[in-house]
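thought: fold this chain, then report.
action: predict
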Amino acid sequence: MKIARVLLMQLLLLAGLVDLAAAATVEREWTVEWVDYDMDGIFTRKAIGVNGQWPIAAVEADLGDELVIHVRNGLAETTSLHFHGLFQNGTSYYDGAVMATECGVPPGGSFTYRVALEQAGTYWIHSHSKSQTADGLRLPLVVRDAKEERIYAYDDEMVVSLQDWFREPATKLMRQFSSADPHVRFRPVIPYAIVGGRCATNARLHFARGKTYRIRLANIGSSFDFHFSIDAHPLRIIEVDGILVRAHAARGVTLGAGQRASVVVTAMSDATEASWNYVFHADMYTELLEMPRYNPLNFTGVIEYSADARTRRERDGGAAWTTVADQDLEPLDRQPLLPEPDTRVTLDAYSGVFSDSSFRHSFNNVSYVAPAVPAVLTALTAGELAGDSAVYGHQSNTHVLRHLDVVDVTVNNHDYYAHPFHLHGHAFQIVETGSIRRGVVRAKQALDSPVRRDTVVVRGGDYAVLRFRADNPGVWLLHCHIDFHVMLGLQMTFVEAPDVLQRRVAKHGGLPPMLRENCVAQGIKTAGNAAGRAGLDLGALNATEPTPNADQFESYDPPSGWELLSYIVHGNNNNVDAIATPTHSPI
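observation:
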């Protein structure tokens, strides 16, 4: 009998029906604090690091693990952690979005995030409080699934984070970008590139002859697009934003802020070719800067076969920004296009000068301002009124979704520059993209099995139609992932199935006690509508909303680089330090 049981277990193991590798708890103790960061001798500035270190090392785990991070806030302001790309199904209160899903961790306070790692892929962790992501509180998160190595036949892998890094702290940049004066707002801000934790020019990626590598790329920066390519080495895209795709040949990959991709690349097998080192490109680009010499910003590192080998450079190198359109990719699971939507939401993204004399961004003329009570607490305490968007306050720009509805979100970008839009709690299908410019007819439809992402770049004057099923009760933000645009109001709120959320949270014993304790410690109410009142009585909450001035919106017809240069050279107010911080801070 004992022999029979052993044979049965061996058969089950061979069939893949039993996994003896028990899920692990990946636990971290983090003190979030300011540290000095020396950028390889170029300059030194303060960064928000963890346990005295910056850049912050990647967190790596396996599918099925639980990630537990104990956070102690050593800053003088509220902080939080958001697990970008993870759905947090059933635990939206660990999503980290301050005043949407929690009150944040107060100075000197603590909070424990417990995240079930139910999705394999390349993700990242960053603050969702103020502009702390731009100041450095960000790092890659990798969740591995062993079968992926077999599917795509690679020998090894590496994580390569891509970060823009500024000399100026985010508070100073915010004063510049929120200025109503274009002479100030358009003044160039030139960042540096950090690749894999090193200044790009000092970065090395080590290849061995004939081996195949998976490179996990993550744009964890605050603003700029990155374009990654390797001289003389073709790439194959196998993953975008945690979603496996059929291998697609590419010369380079472009990632907006918040986006990730995995590429497979095979090292040179010929002895002569492998006797050289090669150049990789991590070039940065933004449509906010149409200035000569500054756009794109070309940064290169070395693919190192040998420490003493010479480096071969291609003449065109990364100059040709060849990339692959999202809709040319097909998910490996071939999930079909969702049925026609039950709910349609249209979001018109504009920017301009508002009534508080600051430059702001908006969806449908509403520039986001956080409620006085976190939206998740309103959803849990407002009873039947939780299904009424008015209870969350006008300025939170809330749409309430019914459970399991198919939702289409059409985002129209009326700005002349791109926005990388990120949706919490979901990966959406990219159904259609095209142009909203007058006289321009251009549209691209999805495949029968459309690619899914959690972050999509919508270029200036373009639109995108995004489709998802509302199968994750909770509070989820949709926002631009340029850190400064979030701060300037380019975000809105989905409250998804609040009735189901109430039942599920009650069934599981309520919210983590530390969440309410952190609210109380900051004098934030933990019940009621957006103003902390009963019913739909919001008091004076909406009375101070910033509203757009007439004819102040930007256009998707961009000024030329020389016009921007003229703004800067002939401006009469270019002292950023003299600019007052906007009265209404969105977060």
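thought: worth noting. The CA atoms of residues 151 and 238 lie 10 Å apart.
final: tokens above.
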